[in-house]
Amino acid sequence: MTVPPLRIDLVTLFPELFEPWASLSFVGRARERGILTLRPRSPRDFGLGRHKSVDDTPYGGGSGMVMRVDVLVACIESLDADAPGPRAHRVLLSPQGTPLIQSKVKELAQREALMLICGRYEGFDDRVRAFVDEELSLGDFVVTGGEVAAMAVIEATVRLLPGVLGNEASTLEESHGADGLLEYPQYTRPAVYRDQSVPEVLTSGHHAAIASWRHEQAVERTRERRPELHARYVER
Ligand SMILES: C[S@@+](CC[C@H](N)C(=O)[O-])C[C@H]1O[C@@H](n2cnc3c(N)ncnc32)[C@H](O)[C@@H]1O
């Protein structure tokens, strides 16, 4: 069965940020292998007047500039108009959105086309929210622009696409996977570093004992660090 490639359209004032990042990572390799298409486009191309203006001062006063809804929507609709496939699921990146979690990433990875809309300055004219399907946040903090958030969404999503990572099992067993636990502690050589030794069970060659130790560690680690995830795991 061939899986259709994921198309990711990007509304960004800095389309050039994406090329070096993509080409130096597995994202670029996914693209070369036809698993992914990236289409960054700038609202500046739809900007107004001689200066191709994309922002304006906020009604009611206040600091900073706000991205204009007409310019943003022109960019969004132009990406749709020449899309080589289905209309993209539109995601507004904003610190006011629902915090991104792995189950949402899995959902995004099932789609054929996504559009990630990156803000700058003081953010968006609120009316743009009527033109998007959902609003996602990286977490409860504020960065300067949506591009960092878009890169995080792309990396998290693309690594789940079949054939992108060499070892598919690694996305099943890791933190926030099917069981909702954090991953167990991992070690590699040297077996002893300063006063720290690798747990003996891992060098025993006893596969069942290793699996059981890892499971216990994952549960304990989750209980200590993320009691709310542990509670959900116990309730299942
Ligand atoms: C400086 S922020 C604007 C914040 C806005 N004034 C507010 O208080 O909600 C500029 C842009 O960065 C992006 N951004 C900032 N923090 C983010 C976060 N936690 N998650 C996703 N995008 C974020 C958004 O696209 C946002 O429009």
Give short descriptive properties of this protein.
236 residues, alpha/beta, Alpha/beta knot, Trp Operon Repressor, Chain A, 2 domains, two-stranded antiparallel sheet, 8 helices, elongated, binds S-adenosylmethionine
Blueprint (SSEs and pairs):
Elements: E1 6-11, H1 18-23, H2 26-32, E2 36-41, E3 55-56, E4 66-67, H3 69-81, E5 89-99, H4 102-109, E6 113-117, E7 134-137, H5 146-158, H6 169-173, E8 192-193, E9 196-197, H7 207-225, H8 227-235
Parallel strand pairs: 1-2, 1-6, 5-6, 5-7
Antiparallel strand pairs: 3-4, 8-9
Bound molecules: S-adenosylmethionine.
Detailed description of the structure:
This protein is an alpha/beta fold. Helix content is 34%, strand content 17%. The protein is built from eight helices and nine strands. The protein has helices spanning 18-23, 26-32, 69-81, 102-109, 146-158, 169-173, 207-225, 227-235, and strands at residues 6-11, 36-41, 55-56, 66-67, 89-99, 113-117, 134-137, 192-193, 196-197. A five-stranded parallel sheet has the order 2-1-6-5-7, sandwiched between helices. The protein has a two-stranded antiparallel sheet with strand order 3-4. Helix 7 (207-225) crosses helix 8. The longest helix has 19 residues, at 207-225. 25% of the residues are buried. The structure holds S-adenosylmethionine. S-adenosylmethionine is lined by residues 93-96, 118-120, 122-124, 137-139, 141-146, 149.
